[in-house]
Amino acid sequence: MNRKLIIVLLTVLVLITGGLGWLQHQNSFQNLSVTLDPQIKSADIYQSEGEGHVPDSESPSTHLSTSQELRLKKGSYVLVTDATGDFSPQTIYFDLQDKKINFTVAPNYSGQKLQDLLISEQVLIDQEFNSRYPNKPAGYSVSNGQLFMRGEWYGALLVSSSGQDGLRFVMQKREGKWTVATDPPEIVLSAVVYPGIPKEILQAVNSL
Amino acid sequence: MKTLRSRIYFLLVVVVVGFLLVFLIVNNRSLSAQINIEVVPSGSSVKLNNKGIREGVSKVKPGEYEVVFSHQGFSTISERVELSKGEKRYIGAALRPTVPTTADWYQKHPDDAKKSEGISSKNFDQSTNLKAKSLPLLKELPYIDRYFRVDYGPGVKSKDPATSTAIYIRASSPENRQMALSWIRQQGFDPVDYEITFKSFDNPFASGD
Fold first, then answer.
1. Are residues B58 and B102 in the same domain?
2. Backbone φ and ψ of A37, nearest 5°
3. Do A166 and B174 touch (CB under 8 A)?
4. Residues B96 and B160 in one domain
5. Per residue in B91-140, pLDDT tens?
């Protein structure tokens, strides 16, 4: 009799422990949806120790060659794409915790590609800027103009010949037409004031 | 036989109670945010996402909520909050009289008047703490240097009223303004995260033409 009781007890304990273990195991994973730009041939996801840490020699946790729905252990990760053709490498840090994450991997053009593009866009950019500010204050000239991302953003520094404050501005190309996105040009551009402009562009223009 | 059966029943009860405890613990862990509600006049209706809720501290799941305070003869106040995991948020409302019969409510009900003062004070403290949390540079201000002064005040350009606090830089020359920006960076903050207003600086492009 006692033996039967012990067997029932052990079975129940094993079932409870197994059930709890299974629940805990399931809870340690989270879903991730990665959409790869058609131009990107592959991307690797590595476990990371946080922003700034890119594992170099470890084998990736996951290798992607197409857009995928993944289920990974909760934690910090970094997604890395290699430089290919006209595109620069991209590194995306993300923290997979309680919520599912969706993101699109669409690397920016390489610096060389953006420089080449700027040659053909510069005239149109200057035309739009001059028409927006027909009475441009004397002594200011555009300097260090750069295209960003896939050439749809432009940022530059207005330098004063009389030692006044350098002023920064950003322009955006929409439906083939350039428009001034930050009006007026400022000493420092703010992501709070211009939430529609990617912060990394504002940071890059602030450091021109 | 009878003893075995009773032992099995006992065991089943233990198992069921165990599962219930695990369920309650897991469920309680998901209710990890706290909301502390206070309202005057006493007895006002408080609804959290259209469901009645009592004053005081309640555990809720992290997420977005709308809290609506109402009382006949008083204004209705609605507030939206987003609570993250582990967050504790105070939401207090002092409803204003809107009809002649309630116009002198707070004079006639000193307890409510006192509670109303407490609510205003707690709301102010929380607003200050939230601003300091979202704009950590504010903790370092005001900063007064020989060549510049960095302070803060109401923002005017940002679209989001929750972050409508601007950093004010007072400096008389372009070099001093750059020194002020360098000081902000040296403190570990990026000026891009703040609305920055340069006092005593006339932007030559500001007229837009």
1. yes
2. -60, 140
3. yes
4. no
5. 999 999 999 999 999 999 999 999 999 998 888 888 777 777 777 888 88
Cα separation of the two ends of chain A: 84
For residue A133, give the nearest of B177, B198, B205 by CB distance.
Answer: B205
For residue B198, give the chain A residue with the closest CA.
A187
B6 three-state secondary structure? helix
Q: Residue A56 — φ and ψ, nearest 5°?
A: -105, -40
In angstroms, the Cα distances linking A19 to A14, A42, A177 are 8, 38, 60
Distance to chain B for A34, nearest Cα, Å:
24
Show the domain range for B67.
32-134
Element (H, E) at A70: strand A68-73
CATH of the domain at B71: 2.60.40.1120
Residues from chain A contacting residue B168 (CB–CB below 8 Å):
none
A residues 122-141 near B, CB within 8 Å? 132-137, 140
User: Do B39 and B128 fall into the same domain?
Assistant: yes
Determine the Cα–Cα distance for residues A20 and A32; give it in Å rounded to an integer.
24
In chain B, the number of structural domains is 3
Residue A189 pLDDT exceeds 90 = yes
pTM for the structure as a whole: 0.67
Q: Is residue B185 part of a domain?
A: yes
Cβ of residue A167 closer than 8 Å to a chain B Cβ: yes
Enter the ipTM: 0.73
Mind listing the pLDDT tens digit for each residue in B180-190? Answer: 999 999 999 99
CA distances from A163 to A130, A166, A208, B116 (A): 21, 8, 16, 55
Give A173-195 as a DSSP string.
Answer: EETTEEEESSSS-BSS--TTT-T
Are residues B72 and B156 both part of a single domain? no
Map tokens 């006002």 to a residue.
Answer: B44
- Which of B4, B174, B206 lies nearest to residue A164, judging by beta carbons? B174
- Decide if B194 and A137 are in contact by the 8 Å CB cutoff: no
Q: Is A140's CB within 8 Å of B157's CB?
A: no
- Below-70 pLDDT ranges, chain B: 1-2, 4, 23-31, 158-163, 207-209
Residues of chain A with C-beta less than 8 angstroms from the C-beta of B160: 192, 195
Residue in A12, A185, A203 nearest the CB of B205: A185
One domain, residues B127 and B143: no
CB contact under 8 A, A135 and B209: yes
Query: Are B129 and B36 members of one domain?
Result: yes
Determine whether the interchain pair B208/A184 forms a contact, defined as Cβ–Cβ distance below 8 Å.
Answer: yes
